[in-house]
Design brief:
Length: 197
């Protein structure tokens, strides 16, 4: 029996509770490291938010199509979050890794667990972004004005669960001051892209 060849590239998994600043930190990181990193675009069954573009922010699809792709094994990881499915394309990730690319995955803790289980230690670097407090997270969710009060409470309940999984990650960054969190994230990612798997 021949052993499957290990792809050359590396995966950088970034997770956080909704509203902890993960998306803003990643956007700022890509401005300085975009040439070295490929951002994985997730597939989701949730409807697009205002300003979101298919293929750029997410690949939007119907639930039936998504569940068919689960059955076909087309997702490297997938999860049901807040009533919607989210998943990462297996063929696209494997192609990037074969080319030696550094792929950034913005996924939840469940997806991070699935990814770590499928790749050798050292090929996946996982980073958890946490808010300073749950109350600070509540205020951020209110301030961004995207969700109803009911949705915010649901996200806070989920966040409390997500925070219990922070210790499973290789690194935890507290996003109390955006500039400091970005500096810490940038240093970590710079270290990853300059070190072979």
């Amino acid at each position: 029996m021949t052993q499957k060849a290990i792809p050359k590239g590396r995966l950088i998994v970034i997770s956080a509770p909704s509203g902890a600043g993960k998306t803003s930190l990643i956007a700022a990181l890509l401005k300085t490291h975009g040439a070295r990193l490929q951002l994985s675009v997730s597939t989701t069954t949730r409807p697009p938010r205002p300003g979101e573009e298919h293929g750029k922010d997410y690949f939007f699809c119907e639930k039936d199509a998504f569940t068919k792709r689960i059955e076909e094994g087309s997702f490297l990881e997938w999860a049901l979050v807040h009533g919607n499915y989210y998943g990462t394309s297996r063929p696209w990730i494997e192609d990037q890794l074969r080319q030696g690319g550094f792929v950034l995955l913005e996924i939840d803790w469940q997806g991070a667990q699935q990814i770590r289980a499928q790749f050798p230690r050292g090929q996946v670097v996982s980073i958890f972004i946490r808010p300073p407090t749950v109350e600070a997270l509540r205020q951020r969710l209110i301030d961004r004005g995207k969700d109803s009060a009911e949705v915010i409470e649901e996200r806070l309940r989920a966040a409390k669960e997500e925070l219990t999984h922070a210790d499973e990650f290789d690194y935890v960054i507290m996003n109390q001051e955006f500039a400091i969190a970005l500096r810490d994230l940038t240093q970590l990612v710079s270290q990853v892209v300059s070190t072979p798997a």
